[in-house]
Amino acid sequence: MTEDIRLLAFSAALGFVHIVAASAAGLGQRGGLAWAAGNRESEGEVTGAAARLQRASKNFFETFPLFAALVLAAAVSGRQGGAVAWGAQLYFWARLLYLPIYGFGIPWIRTPVWGVAIVGIGFVFAGLFGWAGPGL
């Protein structure tokens, strides 16, 4: 398995962590297991860390499909390694940091970390088309 595909798999696992973290954090505010077992006519409002984790999860699932599509396109076209692998590294590690940074509400760091993940997607895109420089 190549590094970029491995990081794609780890990123998918991270998506699962996002779902569980957001769900678990908001469960108590929504009414506990009775709400979870019910028909959920209402999403139920959450605040604080639970709301931040919910937004972090939504943000992850806005970028992950783009990342996954580009990594898979690189794999199918034989453009793995180099900039694609670097981009996958940037994306995964930034998204891994993003969850606790957003969850704990740490100001001024969340946006640059998100930016690193976006740069990672850009590297994957550049690598897919062979636009990266030598050594990447």
SSE inventory with pairings:
Elements: H1 3-30, H2 32-37, H3 48-76, H4 83-103, H5 110-128
Helix pairs in contact: 1-3, 1-4, 3-4, 3-5, 4-5
Pfam families: MAPEG
Protein name: MAPEG family protein
Main location: membrane
Could you report the average pLDDT, rounded to the nearest whole number? 91
> How many domains is the backbone divided into?
1
CATH class: Mainly Alpha
Number of helices: 5
Shape field: elongated
Order of helices and strands: HHHHH
The tally of strands reads 0
CATH topology: Four Helix Bundle (Hemerythrin (Met), subunit A)
Keywords: Membrane, Transmembrane, Transmembrane helix
Protein name: MAPEG family protein
InterPro entries: MAPEG-like_dom_sf, Membr-assoc_MAPEG
Pfam family, one: MAPEG
Please give a structural write-up.
By secondary structure, this protein is mostly helical. The protein has one domain (3-128): Membrane associated eicosanoid/glutathione metabolism-like domain (Four Helix Bundle (Hemerythrin (Met), subunit A), Up-down Bundle), CATH 1.20.120. 76% of the residues lie in helices and 0% in strands. The protein has helices at 3-30, 32-37, 48-76, 83-103, 110-128. Helix 1 (3-30) packs antiparallel against helix 3 (48-76) and helix 1 (3-30) runs parallel beside helix 4 (83-103). The relative contact order is 0.17. The mean pLDDT is 91.
